[in-house]
Structure formats: C-alpha cells, structure tokens
Specification:
The protein has 279 residues and is α/β, with parallel strands linked by helices. It has helices at 70-82, 137-144, 146-151, 181-187, 209-216, 231-245, 251-257, and strands at residues 2-4, 14-17, 20-23, 28-33, 46-48, 55-61, 85-91, 108-111, 115-118, 128-136, 158-162, 176-179, 196-199, 221-226, 271-276. A 7-stranded mixed beta sheet has the order 5-7-6-8-13-14-15, sandwiched between helices. Strands 1-4-11-12-10-9 form a 6-stranded antiparallel beta sheet. Strands 2-3 form a two-stranded antiparallel sheet.
Length: 279
C-alpha cells in the first residue's frame, strides 16, 4: 500500500495550544481508487424549496463525519435562504460522489472537506489537490459495487485517504474515498460563468491545479487555503465569506478587502488565497 503526503510537511500535524489540541485538516493519501462518470447511487439532499429561488448552492460537508459544526452549518443555510438560494445539502456519510458530478448546476459550491495533496511526480497518480468525500472505501464498494470500484482502481480519479489521529497508525484508521483533480477535470461538465467555489480543506491552493480545472470549465472564482489549515479557522472564514456573498458583493472585492485575521490561520500560518477569471 503506497502512502503519500506533501513532501515538505510531516504526514500528521497536531498543534497543541494550552490544553486544546487542534487537529489540522492534513491527511495521508493511500493510493489508488476511482468511479465511473455516471452516478451509480444517489442520496437525497436536505433541500429547502418553499418559494421561488434565484440561485442554487451546493453545501458539501464531508468534514462533518469527523468534525461536525452544526452552528456554522445552520448559519450558512440561514444566510443563503435569505438571499434566495435553493440549497442542496450533503453532510457526513451522505457526501458521496454523486453530488459532485453535477457541479455545473450550481452558482455556489461549498466544499467543507478534508484536503490532501500530491506533489511527488514519482507517484503514478495525478498531481495536485485531493478532496475527501464522506464515505469510506468499503462503503463505496457497497454503494457502487466491488467490480466497478476495482475496475477503476488504477484510473486516477480517486484515491484512498486517511485522516491521521494521535495514537493510531494509518492501518488502524478508516480509508476514505478522495477525489483527484482528474475527477473534476473529466467527470464534470461546464460550470456556470459566475460560479464560485469555496474549498476549506488543506492545500487547496498549494498550487493552481484544481483552481485551473474549475476556472477552465467556466467558473468565476475559486477560493481556498495554501498550507495546513485548522478546521476551526476554515469554518470562521467560510461564515464570513458567505455573509459577504449574500449581500451581493463580488467575491474578488470581498477577498481584497478582507481583514488579515481572516486571511492567515494564526495556529498554522495557512493563507487564504483566491484565483479568478477576469470579467
């Protein structure tokens, strides 16, 4: 079993402040694994549709399986409803691959997810960012069928990912399904020209591979972190960004005027950055 992490950083990083231990959204990637283009299983999102909505948002909260934050989730939903968004919400183990095939439907995509990164050219898998789903590899076999999962194992679309925990070896922890940049490049169609992607995981902008995939498909902006980010800080930034978006503010202008306290994780020095297409 092959494992990779970002070469310049340790595989597992834990920051201890006083008696509080903050586990970063850093992960290990265990290669490989994949799925077909068409969804083979569909979960039913929690969707609010009580009046006519003008825009559509995907809230993909796979992180909730390890680090739930019901307060922030409720706040985001309330804010988006106030701005006439219809919301497709997938939380924890309901955050499968299926919603991600349909990213082209959304004006706003929120990926509250763990992140991995491959910058080792000697590993025969796509370079760039890996986004964690909320399902284990074993659960994927149950949902999609073992033969199909095994047949796609070497295709480069997904990989097995481990979320490190103190006191546990990698072999003791569940293996998640993670999505490579190739998944987003080949498995989804064009995106809306004003679409915004917010990805709160680690390494989301350690290079521009994943950002360029979304922008090349027509999205307007991609915002994420460079480096290891704590999930607590990621949630703080996410909430602030949504507060500005629902006011109708341009995400690029919001980023440029954002206070530095929301651009740098004080625990890890992870940096919030943005990539966008000029209009």
């Amino acid at each position: 079993m092959t494992v990779f992490s970002k070469l310049s950083r340790p595989l597992i990083i834990v920051v201890t402040i006083a008696v509080i231990t903050i586990v970063l959204i850093a992960i290990a990637i265990v290669l490989p694994t994949i799925f077909y283009k068409q969804p083979l299983y569909s979960t039913t999102p929690v969707t609010a549709t009580t009046r006519v909505y003008e825009k559509k948002a995907l809230v993909y909260d796979s992180l909730a399986r390890e680090y739930p934050n019901e307060r922030v989730l409720a706040r985001i939903i309330k804010l988006l409803h106030s701005a006439n968004y219809t919301i497709d919400l997938y939380v924890g183990e309901n955050a499968t691959l299926d919603p991600l095939y349909r990213l082209g439907e959304y004006d706003l995509v929120i990926l509250r997810a763990h992140g991995g990164f491959n910058d080792n050219p000697y590993i025969p898998k796509p370079l760039g960012q890996y986004v964690f789903t909320g399902i284990y590899y074993a659960e994927a076999i149950e949902l999609y069928g073992e033969k199909r999962v095994k047949d796609l194992e070497h295709g480069g679309y997904i990989a097995k990912g481990v979320i490190p925990k103190p006191g546990y070896s990698i072999n003791e922890l569940p293996k998640y399904v993670t999505l490579s940049p190739l998944f987003f490049k080949e498995m989804i169609g064009s995106m809306k020209k004003d679409a915004i992607i917010i990805y709160t995981g680690c390494y989301g902008l350690d290079n521009d591979v994943l950002a360029n995939v979304f922008l090349d498909k027509g999205a307007y902006a991609y915002i994420s972190f460079k480096g290891n980010v704590t999930w607590v800080f990621g949630d703080q930034v996410l909430e602030v960004l949504i507060e500005h978006i629902v006011k109708g503010e341009d995400i690029v202008d919001t980023y440029k005027t954002l206070d530095n306290e929301y651009k740098v994780d004080k625990y890890t020095d992870a940096l919030l950055e943005i990539r966008y297409r000029r209009r």
